């Protein structure tokens, strides 16, 4: 959607958001996610120090509920229903949440298919670290960076300008982020065995993780580009979580400040932070990169009804419609790499689906000469997109006894032989019995 | 007997005496009423199971038969014939129509339709439950006819009476035991009777009837292989002993050719009669008979001994060469399939144990213990050799057949427990000859002094009288012997009734045990679990369990299973065995690849139910290891000993089956004063289980792993007595 850009007053944001919300209400196309977000803060001051970020969320139609993290009335759900569709956890130093919320409640919230933005900093509590670890990023540690520390704000090289961003239009938007992203906080390692986690913003090769206030007595355990500054995780149920090692990343100050990388001549008027946080939050809250598959259909060639069972060697057609959520409406998803498997313990048929650019993917093939319980299986996992994984079970039966050829041409000699023998035997018996 | 009735009638008042029948008529009346009583008895004695429990289908295989019968009666024969079942053997499916013997189902469906036509609104289940008793009753009629054919009508009656209650047969034909054998024994005996009759008369009509009997047998049970091997063997023996006759020629040729053609109509049998090694004997004998006939004819034409001899030599050489060549080429080219493992294991009882664990693992395939013979035959075991003596004394074509049937089936009964069933009719027939002949002799002895003292009625009686005089206490001795015989026979009847009511009437799906106070305790856990599956799982859920429970889960739980009792795919069963004997994470991968949603295990540790999965577990290891060598049996044993306590092998304590069986078992105290996790020693169990379960171990031990944590599965349901436990396979972790 044509989101109002930065430089606008908060009031204007709100007005535009209201107008857009009204317009959308009329258009009434339901997105993949709701718009109620719970924002948990350590300190209500964050609300104003990060107002640009919150403003952009509100401008995009999100309904933010700002709460202190230790609010005793805090609750994620009531009567079995979740009250929120997403969580913004900007409370890095909270030792424990108020109300009924705790670490497992947050994780359940994610496992129920909700999204979360989590920001930590060097004061991150065990609770926040625990949640981050459970979301696939173990061992959150204090990080410090020498080489890429940047001018303009501070002097001890803990402020870094990261530009090692993930190459994904889906996550970061189609417009390239030119300026480096300012970051100050802790880095984390990403569990390499966890394929669901992606490093969105990685540290440079010369970065390392340590406490800048103390002297290094042993080599830092986390160094170089193994350090992830901002990472995302898309769970199997498509819940998305963004873990940032820096809360300041989202702050008005970083959003608005200019940046110049050490050793580099170019100075940017604006850091890449604003674009970065807007685009990643769009991704996290499913405003982008969400696919849905509907109308999975299959039938025999020449028929329209879906049968309960196929026969071996039947010719069939399979089709599915795949749409992508653009933030305002479902648009046809266009790709040439969606594949269909006809699967029974292993794929017997593997076909790339062709699409008509209107979202309809289809193919046709012959059922293999093997009976059993097959599945139409589409497993479509692409970077940044929600995983599409749907199967439809269908048994394939062998021929019925009367579906074989009745008379086989090559067997005519045998038919002739048997019938002539029978005839001859009859004549012989007749002659033998009655010819005297 | 007839004379006794006569005296009874003599004492009747005058008006009734006018109804007096001629002796022949009296005899007929007696015979018919005795037969009718036997018929009713055979049916009634099999109803214990219905009275004790309820009208239900028993055990494992009958559930499949019931399910297919239900399908047949609902969808008709065409759909049944072409039925592809996608609910079993997931994901392979099973072509049910082409892999079963349809005789039983068709019979029950026809009976059901007949009853419907007679406006009797019965459920198909009642028909199924009562099919086996009905056919057992019919078997008594066949036994009577058979006995009359080979000896006399007295022997026929005794044979009918014996077979009506012989435990070896009852074990497979009580009400609810809706299995192929129920009708197959009837078909078997009928085929034999008709064939013997055809041999005796040389009539084409009887041979044709026997071919149809054979067809029915083929349609009903895989045991038809016994017929198709015994009959040619019999023909061969007759040829060798010089008893060849035109009657034999007609009977065998007609029966074989027509029977073979008819049998080919059964999809499951197909072309086996010309393609499988097990059926080659019949074909060989068929050709041999033609050669024999041809030689006979040539001999008749030539009328020259020397010329014929040389001709015979040439012909025999040619025939043997051609036969051997044909067999050799057929076998080498794979056209004739080699003998199956089951067949081998009949000839060599140790074969299955060494080569095919899946056959050896079935308790009814174990070699028979002597106690089983005693249990199933009782006095027939002693009457059988006596009967053989009588048979040899009056040797005829028919007698040779019965003797061969008796001896071969006795051998097979010794090899496999379940084949006692096949031996039962033969044993009854031969014993009946012994009993009938002995009693007849004794009664003649008892009556002869009276008759001889009065008047001499013929040379036979005179001769008997002559012997009588040489034995002074003969009369009394005969009475004593007769009383003894009646005592034995009554003991037999009592034993049979007792066995039927105590051992063979248990449905095994509902378990009964004696409580501490002697009262009956009913464990209905199986049905509880299956009902839970039916009600609480999604309709396309896939259940993994050991194959024993497959039929029951599909029939009662109406859910898809991975493997079931139709053990047609050893690899698939081995995969399940491997999953059960692997660590949880390895098992999880296997279960994911098979789309398993639930795992069902049977656990007897709480109730003392001995045929549970822990006792079957070594077979899972063996069968799994037979295909996947990563599973090694020694890993589960400690010094060759199978144990589950603290000293058990570490792999044993952590494999999936152990974990699923003993999950949370540590929290439970099964017996007062014993530590938690103590497996009760066997409480009272069914005698049959103890008799048949060769691989049972009494596990009166404390379990070795009490603190079991499950990572990839979660407990979904455990029945009230813990016999069946169902676990849900968790989906992959959401965040990693």
Automatic annotation (TrEMBL), chain A:
<dbReference type="InterPro" id="IPR005013">
    <property type="entry name" value="DDOST_48_kDa_subunit"/>
</dbReference>
<comment type="subunit">
    <text>Component of the oligosaccharyltransferase (OST) complex.</text>
</comment>
<protein>
    <recommendedName>
        <fullName>Dolichyl-diphosphooligosaccharide--protein glycosyltransferase 48 kDa subunit</fullName>
    </recommendedName>
</protein>
<keyword id="KW-0472">Membrane</keyword>
<dbReference type="InterPro" id="IPR055459">
    <property type="entry name" value="OST48_MD"/>
</dbReference>
<dbReference type="GO" id="GO:0018279">
    <property type="term" value="P:protein N-linked glycosylation via asparagine"/>
</dbReference>
<feature type="domain" description="OST48 middle">
    <location>
        <begin position="298"/>
        <end position="436"/>
    </location>
</feature>
<dbReference type="Pfam" id="PF23358">
    <property type="entry name" value="OST48_MD"/>
</dbReference>
<dbReference type="InterPro" id="IPR055457">
    <property type="entry name" value="OST48_N"/>
</dbReference>
<comment type="pathway">
    <text>Protein modification; protein glycosylation.</text>
</comment>
<feature type="domain" description="OST48 N-terminal">
    <location>
        <begin position="36"/>
        <end position="284"/>
    </location>
</feature>
<keyword id="KW-0812">Transmembrane</keyword>
<keyword id="KW-0256">Endoplasmic reticulum</keyword>
<dbReference type="Pfam" id="PF03345">
    <property type="entry name" value="OST48_N"/>
</dbReference>
<dbReference type="GO" id="GO:0008250">
    <property type="term" value="C:oligosaccharyltransferase complex"/>
</dbReference>
<keyword id="KW-0732">Signal</keyword>
<comment type="function">
    <text>Subunit of the oligosaccharyl transferase (OST) complex that catalyzes the initial transfer of a defined glycan (Glc(3)Man(9)GlcNAc(2) in eukaryotes) from the lipid carrier dolichol-pyrophosphate to an asparagine residue within an Asn-X-Ser/Thr consensus motif in nascent polypeptide chains, the first step in protein N-glycosylation. N-glycosylation occurs cotranslationally and the complex associates with the Sec61 complex at the channel-forming translocon complex that mediates protein translocation across the endoplasmic reticulum (ER).</text>
</comment>
<feature type="transmembrane region" description="Helical">
    <location>
        <begin position="412"/>
        <end position="434"/>
    </location>
</feature>
<keyword id="KW-1133">Transmembrane helix</keyword>
<feature type="signal peptide">
    <location>
        <begin position="1"/>
        <end position="23"/>
    </location>
</feature>
<comment type="similarity">
    <text>Belongs to the DDOST 48 kDa subunit family.</text>
</comment>
Automatic annotation (TrEMBL), chain B:
<feature type="transmembrane region" description="Helical">
    <location>
        <begin position="249"/>
        <end position="268"/>
    </location>
</feature>
<dbReference type="Pfam" id="PF02516">
    <property type="entry name" value="STT3"/>
</dbReference>
<keyword id="KW-0479">Metal-binding</keyword>
<feature type="transmembrane region" description="Helical">
    <location>
        <begin position="314"/>
        <end position="336"/>
    </location>
</feature>
<protein>
    <recommendedName>
        <fullName>dolichyl-diphosphooligosaccharide--protein glycotransferase</fullName>
        <ecNumber>2.4.99.18</ecNumber>
    </recommendedName>
</protein>
<comment type="subunit">
    <text>Component of the oligosaccharyltransferase (OST) complex.</text>
</comment>
<keyword id="KW-0328">Glycosyltransferase</keyword>
<keyword id="KW-0325">Glycoprotein</keyword>
<keyword id="KW-0256">Endoplasmic reticulum</keyword>
<comment type="function">
    <text>Catalytic subunit of the oligosaccharyl transferase (OST) complex that catalyzes the initial transfer of a defined glycan (Glc(3)Man(9)GlcNAc(2) in eukaryotes) from the lipid carrier dolichol-pyrophosphate to an asparagine residue within an Asn-X-Ser/Thr consensus motif in nascent polypeptide chains, the first step in protein N-glycosylation. N-glycosylation occurs cotranslationally and the complex associates with the Sec61 complex at the channel-forming translocon complex that mediates protein translocation across the endoplasmic reticulum (ER).</text>
</comment>
<keyword id="KW-0812">Transmembrane</keyword>
<keyword id="KW-1133">Transmembrane helix</keyword>
<dbReference type="Pfam" id="PF21436">
    <property type="entry name" value="STT3-PglB_core"/>
</dbReference>
<feature type="transmembrane region" description="Helical">
    <location>
        <begin position="95"/>
        <end position="115"/>
    </location>
</feature>
<feature type="transmembrane region" description="Helical">
    <location>
        <begin position="153"/>
        <end position="171"/>
    </location>
</feature>
<comment type="pathway">
    <text>Protein modification; protein glycosylation.</text>
</comment>
<keyword id="KW-0472">Membrane</keyword>
<comment type="similarity">
    <text>Belongs to the STT3 family.</text>
</comment>
<feature type="transmembrane region" description="Helical">
    <location>
        <begin position="214"/>
        <end position="237"/>
    </location>
</feature>
<feature type="transmembrane region" description="Helical">
    <location>
        <begin position="127"/>
        <end position="147"/>
    </location>
</feature>
<dbReference type="InterPro" id="IPR048999">
    <property type="entry name" value="STT3-PglB_core"/>
</dbReference>
<feature type="transmembrane region" description="Helical">
    <location>
        <begin position="280"/>
        <end position="302"/>
    </location>
</feature>
